[in-house]
Amino acid sequence: MILDLKGRLALGESEALLRETITTLATAGDVKVILNCANLNEIDEDGLGFLVVCSTRLHKAGGALKLLNLRKDHLDLIVLARLEGTFDVFTDDISAVNSFFPERAVPSFDVLEYATRQSGGVGPAPVATKLP
Fold it and tell me: Going by C-beta distance under 8 Å and a sequence separation of 6 or more, which residues neighbour residue 30?
């Protein structure tokens, strides 16, 4: 299931709507969820915390949460919160969908490498990498 997020993800109405949607999907057994963040203007600390809650809920139900089309400021917040190993991040929807199928090689955005580059560490530009 791909959910297109729009506007702002923060404590309040947007968080409540996403919580209800994730709960409904998990209850129905639809636990492989991709959040398309292309039209998401802002994620605040509460919104990021809620993404962790969603990921945990889906994982406990046997699924996963994938993030798609994050903006630089969204990635910066993930790095600042030291959550770079928490989420699978993708730059295209086909790769995000294919990531739910273990037999398919999938390019993924390397958030850890992005964090290294942002902190002034040595490393190539963050490009798609093949997962085992």
Answer: 1, 63
